[in-house]
Design a protein that fits this description.
F5/8 type C domain-containing protein, 33 strands, alpha+beta, 4 domains, globular, Galactose-bd-like_sf, FA58C
Length: 676
């Protein structure tokens, strides 16, 4: 046995050595005029074998790495200067002040948008920076007591890299060395995992992850420089983890970025930090819905719509259910080291952007219950060399893994269970279906949605175009305890309580006031809403008098926070909402109708995503058969839709033509919408 292994290594090792040498030489060639700078580093380390090996590791894997040119984003620099100024003075962002800062700048400079350009590291990185960086990393690795059990391979791959996701700052190591100097003096007896947790939690307290600000309200502010991230302490989950990984590595903690191209039952990608050597996960995530109980439930950051346990999430209608968790189809590690079996290196055809990163490594089985599956395809002959499994976001199918088709099937390995997939080709940025959409069940069975679905569902009733998610339910629960009262005295001294919200309102609720007496004021008091829920917020309150005529009046009360102003309560928009400033002593709002009037009914709408079926709005039902095929339009009646003679065992989605754009695919099972 040893002889066979020895002969194998003799054959393999020169081949590996040759490939590594070719990779290094290719990197030097791509450096062009900067080659001399890179060679200076090798010369500097030539008498220190470990450092020379580290230099070669960095350079040979530098191919494709780049950094943003700060000159190309100077138009957006004033945003980060203002955010940095505020953070330096306050230490954290209070009451969503970041929105006010950015909104104010945009009003003054409406055309201050960036057009980011990148510089290739191989062609621009300096020898001075890399020499300083390598010396610093070796000092940390060799001197910090918690690094004593970290081997050279782990050090090279997960401490030594100077960049994550094409973002770095030449002063980063000095910045973090100073930032955590006091901490290091107190934790020398701890393991690097324990120290990594302390640093991670410290960053989570100050660095604000604000997807809405950068992806919706102020597009174009990202990407930005690492220096801006470090000083302003704000970004999306990607920027937060770029910053965290640099902080960990600068303190001798081996760390890397994990990601996936898209959630299984939601839109967008996601990123989080893995400390190499984290504890093994005994119970992998099986993509099933379960309420949050404790931090031990969080196997992947942001799985839950909100990391909150609430006993108030009950009494919802029997035709719906709360979606607590996001699902995950695949998990990838984003390595600095180029992965030799990656699609970016082997593909000769156009591939999706996500798979152009040569550092991605499939680590799905570290986190997720997954299966190796043979996926049936429609054709023997294939228009493309590669076929993908895709998940659905709000409007498109997003590739999440790839395979090589073989006749009328393709083998996909380590695929997350309990997720909806579509096999497809990728061509000119478009997704072309290659087989039936299917749900991968937990036992490995494929529940396929055949093109030959028969129209034999006698009737189906739908109540929503999106799942009722945990954060929406929590927003509704935040109104429990709200008291409504009526009165005629301006000082509200004669207030008569007429209704208290005692159970979770599902998107909207109402109450009647069975009296002939007239009142001038309606008071909504939320002083005693429970603190363990989301903060009180409400989208709309409508007051009706005789003959269902809506009463108009002046609205006063506790001022709102940022854009969540008091007037949002009566703006006719079910998405905009009012959230009171909780620092004020009195928590209430008052409708003044100008004169005493008979009040018959009050409708109230908690803050929500407004994705239920709404009476009077126009909807269209679709089912999937190579594309979304319409099944007819209907106006909502009694907050529901009822369709007859539609395909059974099909995949559906509902589009609102009146307003809104969000939707999710669903199946109809035992009289209930099941969301994917």
């Amino acid at each position: 046995m040893r002889t066979i292994l020895y002969l194998f290594l003799i054959i393999l090792f020169p081949s590996c050595l040759s490939n590594q040498s070719k990779q290094l030489e290719k990197a030097f060639e791509l450096a062009y005029r900067n080659r001399q700078e890179l060679e200076k580093i090798s010369e500097y380390c030539q008498n220190e074998p470990d450092k020379l090996s580290a230099v070669h590791f960095l350079i040979k894997n530098m191919t494709g790495k780049q950094v943003i040119d700060s000159n190309s984003i100077k138009n957006s620099q004033l945003y980060f200067d203002a955010l940095t100024f505020y953070f330096n003075n306050q230490g954290r962002y209070k009451n969503d002040i970041q929105y006010i800062i950015c909104d104010s700048i945009k009003q003054l400079y409406p055309y201050a948008e960036s057009r980011p350009l990148y510089l290739l590291d191989l062609q621009h990185i300096s020898s001075d920076f890399l020499i300083h960086h390598i010396n610093y990393c070796f000092h940390v690795w060799q001197q910090y007591p918690w690094c004593k059990d970290i081997d050279f391979d782990t050090f090279s791959k997960f401490i030594l890299p100077y960049t994550t996701s094409n973002c770095y700052w030449e002063q980063a190591s000095d910045f973090f060395e100073q930032k955590y100097a006091a901490l290091r003096d107190t934790v020398s007896h701890k393991s690097y995992k324990e120290i990594g947790k302390i640093i991670s939690e410290d960053i989570d307290k100050t660095f604000v992850q604000n997807w809405v600000l950068f992806s919706q309200k102020h597009k174009g502010l990202l990407p930005t420089t690492f220096k801006n991230l470090a000083t302003a302490q704000i970004g999306t989950c990607l920027e937060a983890n770029i910053y965290k990984i640099a902080a960990l590595r600068a303190n001798g903690i081996p760390a890397t970025l994990n990601t996936f191209p898209n959630w299984g039952n939601a839109n967008s990608s996601h990123f989080w930090t893995e400390i190499i050597g984290d504890e093994h996960i005994d119970n992998l995530y099986d993509n099933t819905q379960r309420p949050y109980v404790s931090k031990n439930d969080i196997l992947v950051d942001n799985i839950f719509w909100k990391n909150t346990y609430s006993p108030a999430l009950k009494n919802i209608p029997p035709y719906t259910s709360i979606q607590y968790c996001r699902t995950i189809p695949k998990v990838y590690r984003v390595n600095y080291e180029i992965q030799q079996n990656c699609l970016a290196l082997r593909a000769k055809e156009e591939i999706p952007d996500f798979f152009r990163n040569p550092g991605i490594e499939d680590i799905t089985d570290k986190y997720i219950v997954c299966k190796d599956i043979e996926v049936p395809l429609w054709d023997n002959k294939h228009k493309k060399e590669y076929v993908y499994l895709c998940c659905y976001d709000d409007n498109n199918w997003i590739p999440v893994c790839w395979s090589i088709p073989r006749k009328k099937q393709a083998l996909f390995t380590k695929v997350g269970v309990n997720v909806l997939y579509l096999p497809a080709y990728y061509e000119s940025g478009a997704i072309i279906p290659a087989g039936d959409a299917f749900i991968l069940k937990e036992d490995g069975e494929l529940k396929c949605f055949s093109q030959k679905a028969s129209k034999n569902e006698t009737s189906a009733t739908f109540y929503s175009k999106m799942p009722y998610r945990q954060h929406t339910a929590l927003q509704a629960a935040g109104t429990i305890g709200t008291r409504f009262s009526v009165c005629n005295n301006k000082d509200l001294s004669d207030s008569l309580n007429v209704y208290t919200i005692e159970k979770l309102p599902f998107y909207e609720d109402s109450f009647k006031i069975p009296t002939n007496k007239k009142y001038r004021y309606l008071v909504c008091e939320f002083q005693n809403t429970p603190t363990f829920q989301d903060p009180f917020s409400i989208a709309e309150i409508k007051v009706f008098g005789e003959n269902q005529q809506q009463l108009e009046g002046k609205l006063t009360g506790t001022k709102g926070i940022s854009d969540n102003k008091l007037e949002n309560v009566i703006d006719g928009d079910r998405v905009s909402f009012y959230q009171p400033n909780k620092s004020e002593k009195q928590q209430y709002l008052v409708f003044d109708f100008g004169k005493s009037s008979k009040i018959e009914k009050v409708e109230f709408y908690p803050r929500s995503d407004d994705n239920r079926i709404v009476t009077g709005e126009l909807y269209e039902l679709f089912y999937w058969d190579k594309k979304w095929i319409p099944l007819g339009q209907q106006y909502g009646k009694e907050n529901r839709l009822t369709f007859h003679s539609i395909p059974k065992n099909a995949l559906f989605r509902i589009h609102n033509h009146t307003r809104g754009k969000e939707h999710r695919p669903f199946t109809y099972e035992e009289g209930k919408q099941v969301w994917w």
